[in-house]
Amino acid sequence: MNEPLVRIVRGSLTAEEMAALTAVLAARAAVAAATSAAPVVEPVATWSRIERRPAYFSPVSWQQAA
User: Fold this and answer.
1) DSSP class of 11
2) I want to staple 17 with a disulfide (CB 3.0 to 4.6 A). Which of 9, 13, 28, 48 is the partner?
3) 8-state DSSP, 64
């Protein structure tokens, strides 16, 4: 779980290259955070009172499926 996000496979980075890479990754992370905002969903009560439910549903009734 402690794997690095970026790994240098061959060669080494200079300070300028590391700064450029950091800036690019930070910009991409900011864009991803801004676009992944979940829409606000109002809660909907899915329960109903037992006495207000129909007493019987026909097992072949396709109208009740919707």
Assistant:
1) S
2) 13
3) G
The model's pLDDT over 7-58, given as tens digits with 9 standing for 90+, comes to: 778 888 889 988 998 999 899 888 877 776 667 777 777 677 777 766 666 7
Quick one: residue 11, left, alpha or beta (phi over 0 = left, psi -120 to 50 = alpha)?
left
Distance CA 4, CA 1 (A): 9
Helix (H) or strand (E) holding 5: none
Cβ contact 46:65 at 8 Å: no
Element (H, E) at 26: helix 15-35
